[in-house]
Amino acid sequence: MMITDSWYLLNSKYNCENNYRLNPDILPQQRHLLSPKELEEKTKVYANLIRLTDFFVRKLLFFLKDIPAVVIITDDECNVLKVMGNEDMRKNIEIKEGVSFQEQYTGTNSIHLCLNHNQPIQVKGKEHYHKALYNYCCSSCKFTLEEGISGTITLMTKVEQSSAFHLGLVSSVTDAIEREIELNKKNKKLNLFNQVILNSTKNGIIIIDHNGIITDFNEAAENYTGCTKNDVIGNHIYLFKDAFNKFFHYIENVLTDNTKYENIELHFHIDKSNKVCLFDALPIYDDDQFIGVFCQFRDITDRYELEQQVIANEKLSIIGQLSAGLAHEIRNPLTPISGFLQLLEKNCNCENANLYFKIINEELERVKELINNFVLVSKPEAPCKSKVHIQTLLSETIQFMKSEAILHNVSIFFTDHNEEEIFINIDKNQIKQVLINLLQNAIEEMSGGGEIHVTLMKNNETKQIEISVIDQGSGVDEEVLANIFKPFVTTKQSGTGLGLSVCHRIIKNHHGEITVETKKNEGSIFTIKLPFSVQEDN
């Protein structure tokens, strides 16, 4: 609404003449009430409004391109924060950032009246107090933001080019700026909320616009791709074709054909461990218009491993049923064969009889060992636990294996990283069998000799003891490593492939875990982790 009541103007001019004693014939002296530092601080507070005003004012000045005009932004105390527009007009009335439009310095003006009466006001020509301003028309509207920030936006033109519609134009611009600021604030809150969700979820999230530009990329996605958020956001998806090679073609198909993909199983190797996830690549629509792609990685490693374990157990269960009958049938003839061979050995005068019988007996023993291990894998005995001093068990086992190690030019060293004695509830014989198997494998792995280091640590955080067997062998190939604890997997020419499988079953039955780390031509580290309780330590 434009103020036409002359009472506002009469009151203002009265104040200028009688209270402020201003001379209407002299150009008003512009006062700088803000220091440069204060002006800088004020500008920071109003920065968002100034930025948006700059955008709208450029459009406003474009439509008024044939009319010289100046746009002024002030704070709520009439201090000029920003001046845009015609340079000649700015120089003629000396308008610049930092000056004050308070009535006692500048006389009757629309900025002071707008703030004082809290309404849009237009002051035209002789309605000004100073004659130097008679040639100008000023239209001011007040803005108020939610944070309590307020001020004015003013359009100044020459009187002959002014219009009553200019006040409505400034009012519309002010309303548009206020709405834009409010919208930006809501968008900022929404973006912040989205970021909280994206960064707090364990799922990897990638969002891509319809042009293929990556717009969002959370921390979990960094783990799956090896790329950082700063590297990818704002860049085209094709720049990361190699890094995204496992799932790139799915995204490409969504971008080109809006195809929908759900529950695609992907395998990743992250931080020396294998991760399995379900991958989704879904088109995003705004109403019926395609606007981008939503990608999600859902970690199902635990579920996958459990499924694989169930499958393995089912296989072993079947093997167990077969092996029970097979072992019985093979053991029956082995006993009399072995007995008759011993009788024949005593009564045979053949020149190479002793050698032949020796070979036959060795092979029979090998068959017997294979059957025993086969039965143990398929039907492992439940551990018979008792309180065992773990340092003593390790020392005794190492001492037992030292003679075997010396024959292969191998030295075994034991390092106890604990100052206390450790007792845990285990099946002593089964754990000793695991340790012997690991040491035997390490000795055989180092054909040229070397050192084996056995270490013992107590992890109070995980409530586990950790036994590591470290060799200097040739390491394990990656293909073998993935299946090393499965039955019949071996790197030895004469191995049965059941030893590590037996070790794995024994440790699992003790509610522990056995892992392996390896480097080609540098060696392997087998680590056994067994749980302990507070009661077991006392």
Walk me through what this model shows:
This protein has 538 residues and is an alpha+beta fold. It contains 17 helices and 19 strands. A five-stranded antiparallel sheet has the order 3-2-7-6-5, with helices on both faces. The protein has a five-stranded antiparallel sheet with strand order 9-8-12-11-10, with helices on both faces. Strands 14-16-17-19-18 form a five-stranded mixed sheet. Helix 3 packs across helix 7, helix 11 runs antiparallel to helix 12 and helix 14 packs antiparallel against helix 16. The C terminus is likely disordered.
Task: Name the structural class.
Answer: alpha+beta
**Which strand order does the major sheet show?**
3-2-7-6-5
Q: Could you give the distance between the termini?
A: 87 Å
* Radius of gyration based on Cα positions: 43 Å
In brief, what are we looking at here?
The chain is of the alpha+beta class and 538 residues long. The chain has 17 helices and 19 strands.
Helix-strand layout with pairing:
Layout: H1 6-19, E1 31-32, H2 36-45, H3 47-63, E2 69-75, E3 80-85, H4 87-92, E4 99-100, H5 103-106, H6 110-117, E5 121-124, E6 136-144, E7 150-158, H7 165-200, E8 204-209, E9 214-217, H8 219-225, H9 229-232, H10 248-257, E10 261-270, E11 273-286, E12 289-299, H11 301-347, H12 353-378, E13 386-389, H13 390-407, E14 410-416, E15 423-426, H14 428-445, E16 450-459, E17 464-470, H15 478-481, H16 499-509, E18 513-519, E19 523-531, H17 534-537
Parallel strand pairs: 14-16
Antiparallel strand pairs: 1-4, 2-3, 2-7, 5-6, 6-7, 8-9, 8-12, 10-11, 11-12, 13-15, 16-17, 17-19, 18-19
Helix pairs in contact: 3-7, 11-12, 13-14, 14-16
